């Protein structure tokens, strides 16, 4: 017979759920209170004959008392708790954290897989295993699921939100999600399961991983210094991907809580402020068992579910391995409509011909692509080193397979970089590329600043650059460096500039921080510095507020210097060695007659210069300083050009910045903000600095776009 937690903690919780005291139970059993107290304290256990009396007092069967693998059902039933409206009349019209990310399954894959990597159990050396399951429910399967989540209790709240949909963004998303479910008779569930991870440990309310994910916003409690996340925003992608704002959770804990580890369940709903039956509700709601210790026993907390309940909620887990399952209810992928489609007719459409953001086959494909692009390095082992991660994606319809489970294979998604990293692990690298298939290695210095704004260098960390030829159609774009640190998620992707003409296509990997190895000097310090230099999207290293507060406003320049060193090392590794005068077919060259090409005819009419290169940094006063190179086509007349500085934004028009300084460096003149080029000029360079007073937001939180536009009279 399977036995769950210890009798004492189990009994104490059942008494709390049933609203009984130890004295009241003792009276019903006709025993002393000291006897019950001894059971709860673990000093003794009741005789088998008393077990039946305890079951009767708790309103359950004797088998439940013996096995203790679930709570009794005599206590308060699982229900929804909606946070009451604020007494001062304030209103939250949505969770601001969810607006940090788009409703995009590729962003979801990046953030959730990063979180699973951060929570990997490292003691056993095994990888964390993550599985994404898309499951479209229709018909009776949909009806059964709605009954399991008490949909009739939720529907009045969704109706209230729909009434306000025209005035509020979150309301419009939720209204569209509900209408899709009813009009098309379907609901897409997207479940993210991880295994060999820590699980949501800790108390329901006190500091811990459970409270950080389920109860709080902008809190990040990661297991190690090499963790990817630091803002506490990644979990918001779960709710952002749900058109209904609803996520259910089932966690198997690595550390027992209340004496148990399996099937810790909770649900969280994110809706805007609403009014239902004359009562105002602030926004979030929780699906769980009412906490008898809360005021009026109204607040819902997690509960220990049985296997049948987990199955009805589509949250059954495989085995007893620790980890967490997140079920996104009403998943949609708005960003899929922006995909690169060669044929408009190939876009996913629903039965009425509208573009479909809930196509599970399309979502399956996009997840595989994103996971292979962002986490290829974490899936690679070699030289006695095991991978950190295994990932798979599958798609179902009413539990039946639609797309077979696909295990993401880094050698397929990133063939050249996989070869490079594996060669590094196996010690099979070379100093310079001389043959096909080789991997060249070079150590790149990364000088770390002193904390607190002090001048000087803490030390030099040796990052590792790996370069190999690009040999597959999958290796696109070419000549790129993928930079990664401790958890081996690709953070930065950048093309190496100014390559010599005729350079063979290549791919490169930069290992920094703990990714460079435990023996690398100042690895932990580099890890900490770069983690602070990442924005919430974790897609680059640069100026951040944390970098300024902990180091200095100019600390980001150390990253710029690292980039310069990396690009220089990459160009050197891929450069073709020059032939000596005696090498090659000198006799053959003399025997050949090469006709000279006729000179190209100079075009008549005006020609338009184009921007050929740009370097930008943030100055000491918060201004953007840029140095730009301009390429000028051959022509009789060169059009004057006006440099335009703008801020890159996610939507709407780009705010334009004024120039505080605009000067010519070579090949041009500056007159009233316009670049003028002498006849015959082929290349020019200018330098500029923006006017800080024209910046709508602080420079550290922006990206700059510079354009050349034809000047007046052109």
Q: Strand content of the residues, in percent?
A: 25-35%
How many separate helices?
19
The percent of residues in helical segments reads: 25-40%
Mean pLDDT: 84
Cα(first) to Cα(last) distance is 88 Å
What ranges have pLDDT less than 50 throughout 5 or more consecutive residues? 225-232, 340-345, 582-592
Major sheet:
12 strands, mixed
Taking Cα atoms only, what radius of gyration do you get, to the nearest Å?
Answer: 31 Å
**What spatial form do the alpha-carbon principal axes imply?**
elongated
Please provide the count of β strands.
28
- Helix and strand content put the structural class at alpha+beta
Question: Short summary of the structure?
Answer:
The protein has 714 residues and is of the alpha+beta class.
Explain this structure to me?
By secondary structure, this protein is an alpha+beta fold. The protein contains 19 helices and 28 strands. Strands 1, 2, 3, 4, 5, 6, 7, 8, 9, 10, 11 and 12 form a 12-stranded mixed β-sheet that branches. The chain has a 5-stranded mixed β-sheet with strand order 13-14-17-15-16. A hairpin with a 2-residue loop joins strand 25 and strand 26.
What are the salient characteristics of this protein?
single chain, 714 residues, alpha+beta, 19 helices, 27% strand, elongated
Topology:
Blueprint: H1 7-18, H2 22-29, H3 33-41, H4 48-58, H5 62-67, E1 79-84, H6 105-118, E2 128-138, H7 139-148, H8 151-163, H9 169-184, E3 186-195, H10 209-214, H11 236-240, E4 242-252, E5 264-270, E6 274-276, E7 279-290, E8 300-301, E9 303-304, H12 307-312, E10 323-331, H13 360-374, E11 389-397, E12 400-407, H14 410-413, H15 415-425, E13 439-449, E14 457-469, E15 480-484, E16 490-495, E17 506-511, H16 523-532, H17 545-550, H18 557-574, H19 586-591, E18 606-607, E19 610-618, E20 624-631, E21 637-638, E22 641-647, E23 656-657, E24 659-666, E25 669-671, E26 674-676, E27 683-690, E28 704-710
Parallel strand pairs: 2-11, 15-17, 18-21
Antiparallel strand pairs: 1-7, 2-3, 3-10, 4-5, 4-10, 5-7, 5-9, 6-7, 7-8, 11-12, 13-14, 14-17, 15-16, 19-20, 20-27, 22-23, 22-28, 24-27, 25-26
Helix pairs in contact: 1-3, 2-3, 6-13, 8-9
